[in-house]
Amino acid sequence: MIKTNASDLREEIAPVYCQYQGQSGPQPAYITIHPESESASAGYSSETGNGCPESIYHNRAYRVRIPADVRGTAIAEFLEDTDTQALISSIIAGYSCDWDGSNHRGSLNDDAESALAELEQAAERLQWDDCRAQIWDEDMLGVCFVVEHWPTAKTLPEAIAEIEAAAESEGASIECDLNEYLLDRAALAFESGNRQIGETHVAALLAAGKIDEDEAQEWRATQAD
After folding, report:
1. Which of 49, 61, 70, 216 is close enough to 55 for a disulfide, judged by CB 3.0 to 4.6 Å?
2. What pLDDT does residue 164 have?
3. Distance, CA of 109 to CA of 64 (rounded, Å)
């Protein structure tokens, strides 16, 4: 059997999903075939822009694009599927590497090229909805009143735990910093004078350095009026 990272993939809901701060979408995700180690793995690209690893550039490894939000169980099952394993074996069997005077460059024979094309076609089934995970990021949680996710009766850790429990029950993957998200929403509500803000919010904002003591005391004075 071809070595894969299937066991690690099963441990996460959306293991190949990663969105870097400041980027408009998640990193590209791939199955990568490593002929020289006779293995295959699924993961996301660590490069931004048009960069790629040297092994890909020199054809010493081969990629098949997959959805970034594919479920860990779905991609693990795909990698361990007997048909997938056979295609990867054919790619590895048809691989060779030669020195071109500057670099070691890989190449595939016709059978391996055909197997790679078949693997790309087979991986299209990972696009199906039942293979995709729900992603709860800041866009999904939305621009909302803070009390929708952080009621005044709850502390910040309690509000975070409640969202995490809801995500687990839905089989969703949380892909944002809930602590920062809720504090940012509370800070916006505080700045706008939203009357739904409570003492739990103000105390957390003060502890996090989002407001200072004078601002907290001024707010408390208005509540006492």
Report:
1. 61
2. 94
3. 18
Whether the CB-CB separation of 60 and 37 falls below 8 Å is answered with no
pLDDT of residue 1: 87
Sign for the pseudo-dihedral over CA of 133, 138, 144, 145? positive
Q: Which pLDDT does position 10 carry in this prediction? A: 96
Taking phi first (over 0 means left), then psi (-120 to 50 degrees means alpha), and beta for anything else, what does residue 11 get? Answer: alpha
Strands of 39-44's sheet, edge to edge?
Answer: 39-44, 29-34, 62-66
Which residues make beta-bridge pairs with 33?
Answer: 40, 62
C-alpha–C-alpha distance, residues 37 and 115, integer Å: 18
Q: Where are the beta strands (DSSP E) in the chain?
A: 29-34, 39-44, 62-66, 95-99, 104-108, 134-136, 172-174
Q: CA 213 to CA 193: how far, in whole Å?
A: 17
- Over its C-alpha atoms, the chain yields an Rg (Å, rounded) of 24
Residues listed for the chain: 225
Decide: residue 195, CB within 10 A, 0-12 exposed, 13-18 middle, 19+ buried.
exposed
d(CA 39, CA 32): 9
Record the tokens describing residue 169, joined without a space. Answer: 């029950």
- Return the pLDDT at 225: 61
DSSP class of residue 43 equals E
Q: What is the pLDDT of residue 75?
A: 97
Q: What is the pLDDT of residue 143?
A: 63
Positions of the chain with pLDDT lower than 50, given as ranges: none
Q: What is the pLDDT of residue 144?
A: 64
Give the residue extent of every domain in the chain: 6-131, 134-224
